[in-house]
Amino acid sequence: MKFVNSLLVAAVTFTAEVAAQAKNPEGPPNLPKNYKSIDLKINLKHGARNKTSPMLHGLFFEDINHSGDGGIYAELIRNRAFQGSDDVTGGTKDLVGYRPIGEGVKLELDITQPLSDALRYSMKVTVPANATGEVGFLNEGWWGINVQPYTYNASLYIKPHMPSFNRSSTISGLTFSLRSNLTDDIWVSTEVPFPDNISAFRYTHLQATLTPPKAAPNSNNTFAVTWNGTEAAGQTFFFNLISLFPPTYKNRQNGLRKDLAEALEGIKPKFLRFPGGNNLEGLSVDTRWDWKKTIGPLVDRPGRPGNWGYWNTDGLGYLEYLLWCEDMGIEPLLTVYAGYSLDASGMHPAHTVPPEELDYFIQDAIDQLEYAMGDVTTKWGALRAQHGHPEPFSIKYVEIGNEDWFSDSYYWRFPRFLEALKKAYPDIMYISSQAVEENPTKQNVTIPPGNMWDLHHYQTPQFYKDNFNYFDNWQEINGYPNVTIFVGEYSVLSRDRPGGVDWVNGEGRFAYPPMIAAIGEAIFALAMERNPHVVKLSSYAPLFQNWNAYQWTPNFIAFSANPKDLVLSTSYYQQKMFSEYYGAETLTVENKNGDFNPLWWGATISEDQSRIFVKIVNSEKDKKTVKLELDKPIKGANATVMRHDDEYAFNFIGNSTIVPKPQKVAKPKGKKVEFVAEGWKQKDWSRAARMGQPKTSAALKKKVGLSSAAPDGERTLGRVPSLALATATRRHPTTLLPLLVTTTTAYAPSSASRLFHTTPRHALPTSGLGSMPPTYFQKAPSLPMNTIIRFVPQQTAWIVERMGKFNRILQPGLAILIPFIDRIAYVKSLKEVAIEIPSQSAITADNVTLELDGVLYTRVFDAYKASYGVEDAEYAISQLAQTTMRSEIGQLTLDHVLKERQALNTNITAAINEAAQAWGVTCLRYEIRDIHAPKPVVEAMHRQVTAERSKRAEILESEGQRQSAINIAEGRKQSEILASEAVRAQKINAAAGDAEAILLRARATAAGIEAVAKAIAEGQEAAQNAISLSVAEKYVDAFSKLAKEGTAVVVPGNVGDMAGMIATALSVYGKVGDAQGTRDAARRILETGKVIESSGTGEAQAEVVAELEAAQEQVAEVKRRSGGQVTGRS
């Protein structure tokens, strides 16, 4: 028989099982009992047994602490497709990670040359016209690149700038290389030729492999893309999706980082829960983890703003998670989006999909399962086959949502999802993310029998001791028959303290898992193993921590670009021991002497019944003797133990000494064997703070590729983290004071210093004990030590306490301190400080909820008040700024908030200064940075603006039409006026012409008459006779015409009397002569009339008219008389 026990920091490791139907022992008291020995008996013949939970120990992964991008996702290029930056809410894109090579080479972000609809931004590289030598760019990787004698796969997309591309140039291709960031060493390079006639219209995909002949001494390396500057002078190129992959886990393309995946494989996990976590939900519905955007070619994956303060590329997508499970031989536990998203403000409840819109997301979850499990005849199964995996995956566990106790809608969302998913896939175990936790609705979700609940616990060691019996009879107590539990996230978060975990200020928060954390987690794991009918699955969280950028501590595994920096925590080894030494059935352990606390135990037996695994934990400093008795002879025993003299010791870079080790066990005596469970040797917390501290000597720094002081202009990638968790959150400035860890010498390059940013993780409930607020971190400043002689920097005030009381404020310059008596209690900067005010909600006077953040500029004017007037002046003033801003905005409507932004800043500044005088801090100015209205309000504002613009456009259009009509009418009017004027002028001109013609004719006639008259006067009788003869001729001629044309014969009455007829004709002649005289009179009248007309008198005109009328009557009389001489006869 094999006896296994694991000692954790003075504690041995454990597992005991109580029969599922048997009555569980009462919970242990808070204080340990003083038993020097514990007598345990295991009855193999008659004791009650239960099947253990074969899937109990697994993994939970979400991309936090750069555990995905920059972590287990093996891509070595940072910001490979320029998808985003650490500004996840502002959406800023940048070129972080890139530097130009060559004098005058310019790198710019460009949106005019997208690679695809998903990857819209590219990097524009401009080579100056006078370039010579090597030009191009480099990428620093994720805080460095590990260079080993492996084969690396490099690729990128390139497109020349069409207007500037010189095809006649001799540039033939690019050079890919891996080179040192500290020296001129180039570890490997390869030429990558351009294809013939490279396109300037479409991107060209270039690929190459690089195999360094030897390993680089450290990970402070870069990936460079270069070409000949002379050949490319004056030209511009666009680049996108720049990629570099080392060998991956199981040689999977686009796969996992090998060392991290193998570390996980080492704990023999049974499942993987993915993709989150908060990172599943997104900061809004639109930014959720949308599985359809994480599949297919990388050029079609847009990425998304993650929930932990940085952009996710989604290179590690849905299919990659499934392949992870396949390659590791574990079950996928898929978490599907369930219609609830978080918010950057941290407010709860946040974003819930309306009931009428929920069906779309339910169908999306069904499609997601079909993509994994459908055969190639289904729509989504065919797409999976197209993506390279025709064989369906098997999914047995699906969680609906994540931490939905933050929402006020899960009670109606969960049943709808469950019903639809059960109908489509009835054989899957469905998991609820809320059951008995406190939530805004004050009601628990109904979980039907046969389903599961996901429980999360982030607690202190004492909490797990106090709740050792939490799972005993849980189903009956809480009214969930046949509902099992998945402990999806748990860890020891901080040391024991009154009130438990400090979720506000982070007091006692562990930077790295110490031994005491592994002890608490081991006790909780024993509680799970004791109840296999209740607890089926469990996983530690969070899984990974990148040394260079993290938002949460403590974590399971810590790493950097250098595999030598990989640190497996005490929690990791506890999980490994529990997973490895785990039987198929539980055994009932009878305690004949002693009870739980400070010793905790449990036992299981292997499936072949040949080995018994006994797990023992000692949670106190005193060693305990364990006497174990079986009802069968013991053939042999051995132990695997993890322990340390200091309960607060932890593993670190170069000092990972807390690991499970084999330990001899006294030879069994028949059916009995004894084992001593050691305790730790001291509990002096001040001393504990020094235990396990890694030595960051110059030799160690050189070993991991770090330098104590980087020369000016030298870039150092990555950093050794501070054990004091030197972090600063951008949005929620609070304080973390890890009491039991100290700060090591962290190398910080002079030109490449990088702040560690954190993002709050959501409150994790205590399962019916009340939910807790989020926890945030801030840099904990280390105070100067009393070295007797100190030099105080300029613009700095050091507050000295003597024997615990305020003594004086040290001014800049030399200061002398009394050793042991004087202590530098506070250090205050007298410089202006910019404090970022976190995003918060404020309600306007017209009930519109706004999200606002800002920047507050302050300065300490009284160091004494800033030290003693308030606990944390910076935090207090930031809180005051938030409340003041909410108060000011509450008095204004939305329109006035937007219009009076500057006045609002002034009012807030004045209000802060009024309240902060007692704190010794003055507010110089306050600036509201961003104002975000709710989406419906923004949409309404957009609609209003659109309507106003449409209205204005219609008004302008109608004004134009009206003006056009006026112009047309005015034109027509002017046209008609001009036309009438023309007609009038024409008529006037015509009349004038006629008058002139008449006048001329009259003058001509008068002249003619005058000439005739003159002739007559001169010719006297002969002229008169000639005239008379002419008239007679015309008379005869007229009668001849009448005879020809008429039907009657007109003849003179005296036709028989020739003499009489001639006499008549002569008579006519005489009359004509009289008429001629009358005409002469008329001519004279006309001449007289002209004279009269020119004189212009009315009397003269009347006289002329009278004379004309008389003349006309004379003419008529002549005609009458002439005609009277001719009568018609038959």
TrEMBL record:
It is found in: Mitochondrion. Residues 686-713 are annotated as: Disordered. It is an enzyme of class 3 (hydrolase). Keywords: Glycoprotein, Hydrolase, Mitochondrion, Signal. It catalyses: Hydrolysis of terminal non-reducing alpha-L-arabinofuranoside residues in alpha-L-arabinosides. Pathway: Glycan metabolism; L-arabinan degradation. InterPro entries: Alpha-L-AF_C, ASD1_cat, Band_7, Band_7/SPFH_dom_sf, GH, Glycosyl_Hydrolase_51, STML2-like_C, Stomatin_HflK_fam. It comes from the Eukaryota. CDD domains: SPFH_paraslipin. SUPFAM superfamilies: (Trans)glycosidases, Band 7/SPFH domain, Glycosyl hydrolase domain. Pfam families: Alpha-L-AF_C (PF06964), ASD1_dom (PF22848), Band_7 (PF01145), Band_7_C (PF16200). Belongs to the band 7/mec-2 family. Residues 787-945 form the Band domain. This is non-reducing end alpha-L-arabinofuranosidase. Its EC number is 3.2.1.55. Residues 1-22 form the signal peptide. The keyword Glycoprotein applies. Residues 488-677 form the Alpha-L-arabinofuranosidase C-terminal domain.
